[in-house]
């Protein structure tokens, strides 16, 4: 018989080594998969992890794109990690991301063609508000009626997607777009645009905010009483209650914070790289950010690195897809393996496998 | 022009000259690298599958003189722009972008790579000299389907699974309805908007909703075989059509005919022109006569006389003696659109955002 036994104190070394080991295991298993598909595994892995950074043909373009792709992931994942640490599971960041983009874009488009520099900050505020509001629904339902925030926040993603579709063909549709779905392209309207701030770097306001938020979250967790409460609530809920931490207040705070950050990410995306509200504006950042949060050990610095790594697999995966003719499903499976191995290795960090029957009841 | 585009443009021009500089376009090319960007998976059995068949036909035609690269499942938006840029950087000489939603990304990337040719399917923006657009007159095929639908329906209720409210789709709905109505004045058309190009589950739900309303002939403007699979569950009570691809697996019923997109002739023509140096910017819109729209076999589930009429219409359209939009045709609100004997100008079709008289309901907005 095989059974799992909880390790009394998981090794601190392995806490941090597991993500690295998971990446290595993913490379090995992914390589085997690529080989079975008839591709050279070494070449495929090199295309995914090396070429976006150092291939002379692509790197000058891909490196900044890494930041563009990682920015929203980091922004959302940091927000989620705060809740996750406290045992509050916001799975609906994708919906909050969409609602942030819609609210922000709506404010900007309503003011069109006003050309003042106050438009963009107003849009950012509206984006934050939209994401926050969407996260408040599961938060209030949880604190008032004790509903499950995992289900409610997840299901609200599909509501948000339908609102997005309706906005793209209705209220926010470009009146000069010949009836085609999609709003005006905000990245081409100076008052609303979120441009690349330094050419060739990929840095836009969203990326800068991602760095700011990483630092802020780090300070919050290390130095601020709220950070202490979040950690305490996750590790010892009863002790937290005795220490005067109100669970309801924490739910509202953590859900609100993660929703606001997801909404902000949506706003920066819709005014920058994406440019317009369209039916398939969202491409899954909100869900991928969950992987990023765990890959980064729910630690702001870890999330920064994990976000960059995840972005690398996306961009490298695209390269591998058309350079080597890999099916896109193989790339998705490869990314899935990363989470799978992380969770598997994590399990072994916290538990040990025991063979044979249990000798005495513990 | 915005600061952002200028800055990006100048930055990217550096790469562009680095990569594209090797090839001299005016004299043609020794060897061409051809890129294809797909919105769905190649295995969708419909739209993307047919584009990929076209890509493979290019490879077959030119052999060693071309190298084909492609990427499937590319989201329409910011990611498309990156995929296109990376393809351009990898040394593609011509890139075909095969979904409407790639329109803005295609034009944006084309601005940065003036030496690379871009061809966008079903769009209307040609902002730069190196952007061409191409499409097929699918409404011609819809006319034939409408004729069959009008003759075949027993409940006098026919259905249409629509994707997005864009002129391309609306003209298909109108053509389908007009020709059903012509042979069956009692016919009623139900339209379900799926708001997707490819989502088998949603498409199946749409088909179910139509069947529940009593519809017994379903046409679809989405890319999968799901609506036919749904119709197949009714033991022959409901029929439908192959869309984009022949979908021959569902022969002889529920699939009684099909519209087949055949992109191969166009792709071969354009890549050939690039190789021999005769390439020029184009706005191509071919139909049955050009071979881009094919009518798949009309099966024996359709009575012989209906089949003969449908084939006669196909041949008349191919010969140019019949235009599916020939007046008198009124708009939904009763105002006149085409006078007796007048045929629709292309401009009207490309901007068609109205239903013809007799269709109930509103175009979603």
Structure description:
The complex is a heterodimer of chains A (362) and B (365). Chain A has 362 residues and is an all-alpha fold. Chain A has one domain: Orthogonal Bundle (ABC transporter involved in vitamin B12 uptake, BtuC), CATH 1.10.3470. In chain A, 70% of the residues lie in helices and 3% in strands. Chain A contains 14 helices and two strands; from the N terminus they run βααααααααααααααβ. In chain A, strands 1-2 form a two-stranded antiparallel ribbon. The radius of gyration of chain A is 22 Å and the shape is globular. Chain B is of the alpha/beta class and 365 residues long. Chain B has two domains: 3-136, Rossmann fold, CATH 3.40.50.2300; 138-259 and 294-350, Rossmann fold (3-Layer(aba) Sandwich), CATH 3.40.50. Chain B has helices at residues 3-20, 47-62, 78-89, 103-112, 138-152, 167-183, 200-212, 226-232, 264-276, 304-319, 346-350; strands at 32-37, 66-71, 94-97, 117-121, 131-136, 157-162, 188-193, 217-220, 239-244, 255-261, 283-286, 293-296, 329-330, 336-338. In chain B, helix 5 runs parallel beside helix 6 (167-183). Chain B is globular. Chains A and B meet through helix 4 and helix 13 of A and helix 1, strand 2 and helix 3 of B.
């Amino acid at each position: 018989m095989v059974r799992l036994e909880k390790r009394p104190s998981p090794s601190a070394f392995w806490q941090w080594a597991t993500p690295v080991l998971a990446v290595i295991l993913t490379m090995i298993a992914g390589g085997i998969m690529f080989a079975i598909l008839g591709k050279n595994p070494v070449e495929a892995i090199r295309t995914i992890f090396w070429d976006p950074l150092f291939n002379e043909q692509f790197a000058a373009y891909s490196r900044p794109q890494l930041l563009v792709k990682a920015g929203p992931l980091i922004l959302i994942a940091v927000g989620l990690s705060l809740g996750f640490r406290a045992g509050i599971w916001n799975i609906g960041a994708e919906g909050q991301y969409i609602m942030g983009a819609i609210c922000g874009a709506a404010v900007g488009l309503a003011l069109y063609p006003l050309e003042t520099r106050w438009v963009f900050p107003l849009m950012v505020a509206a984006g934050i508000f939209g994401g926050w509001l969407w996260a408040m629904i599961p938060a209030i339902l949880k604190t008032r009626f004790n509903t499950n925030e995992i289900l409610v926040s997840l299901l609200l993603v599909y509501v948000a997607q339908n609102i997005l579709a309706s906005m793209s063909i209705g209220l926010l549709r470009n009146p000069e777009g010949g009836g085609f779905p999609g709003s005006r392209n905000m990245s081409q309207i100076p008052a609303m645009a979120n441009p690349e701030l330094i050419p060739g770097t990929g840095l836009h306001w969203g990326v800068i905010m991602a760095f700011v938020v990483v630092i802020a979250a780090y300070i919050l967790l290390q130095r601020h009483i709220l950070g202490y409460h979040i950690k305490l609530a996750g590790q010892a809920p009863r002790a937290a209650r005795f220490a005067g931490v109100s669970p309801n207040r924490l739910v509202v705070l953590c859900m609100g914070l993660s929703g606001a950050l997801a909404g902000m990410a949506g706003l920066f995306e819709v005014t920058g790289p994406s440019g317009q509200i369209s039916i398939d504006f969202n491409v899954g950042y909100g869900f991928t950010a969950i992987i990023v949060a765990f890959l980064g050990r729910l630690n702001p610095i870890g999330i920064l690195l994990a976000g960059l790594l995840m972005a690398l697999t996306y961009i490298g995966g695209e390269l591998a897809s058309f350079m080597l003719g890999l099916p896109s499903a193989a790339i998705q499976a490869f990314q899935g393996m990363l989470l799978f191995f992380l969770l598997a290795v994590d399990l072994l960090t916290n538990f040990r496998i025991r063979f044979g029957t249990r000798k005495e009841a513990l | 022009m915005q600061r952002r585009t200028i800055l990006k443009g100048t930055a990217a021009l550096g790469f562009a000259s680095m990569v594209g500089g090797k090839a001299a376009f005016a004299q043609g090319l020794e060897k061409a690298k051809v890129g294809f960007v797909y919105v769905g998976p190649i295995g969708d059995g419909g739209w993307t599958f047919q584009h990929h068949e076209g890509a493979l036909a290019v490879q077959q035609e030119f052999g060693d003189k071309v190298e084909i690269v492609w990427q499937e499942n590319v989201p329409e938006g910011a990611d498309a722009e990156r995929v296109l840029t990376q393809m351009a950087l990898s040394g593609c000489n011509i890139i075909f972008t095969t979904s409407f939603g790639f329109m803005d990304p295609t034009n944006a990337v084309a601005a940065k790579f003036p030496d690379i040719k871009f061809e966008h399917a079903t769009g209307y923006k040609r902002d730069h000299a190196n952007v061409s657009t191409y499409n097929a007159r699918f409404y011609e095929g819809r006319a034939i389907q409408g004729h069959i639908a009008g003759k075949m329906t027993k409940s006098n209720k026919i259905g249409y699974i629509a994707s997005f409210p864009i002129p391309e789709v609306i003209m298909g709905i109108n053509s389908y309805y007009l020709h059903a109505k012509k042979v069956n004045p009692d016919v009623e058309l139900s339209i379900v908007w799926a708001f997707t190009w490819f989502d088998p589950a949603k498409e199946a739900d749409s088909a179910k909703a139509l069947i529940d309303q009593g519809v017994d002939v379903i046409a679809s403007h989405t890319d999968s075989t799901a609506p036919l699979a749904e119709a197949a569950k009714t033991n022959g009570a409901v029929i439908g059509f192959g869309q984009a691809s022949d979908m021959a697996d569902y022969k002889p019923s529920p699939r009684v005919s099909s519209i087949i997109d055949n992109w191969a002739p166009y792709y071969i023509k354009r890549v050939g022109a690039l190789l021999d140096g005769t390439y020029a910017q184009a706005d191509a819109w071919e139909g049955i006569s050009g071979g881009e729209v094919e009518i798949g076999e009309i099966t024996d589930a359709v009575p012989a006389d209906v089949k003969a009429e449908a084939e006669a219409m196909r041949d008349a359209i191919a010969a140019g003696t019949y235009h599916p939009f020939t007046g008198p045709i009124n708009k939904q609100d009763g105002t006149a659109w085409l006078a007796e004997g007048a045929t629709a100008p292309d401009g009207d079709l490309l901007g068609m955002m109205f239903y013809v008289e007799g269709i109930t309901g509103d175009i979603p907005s």
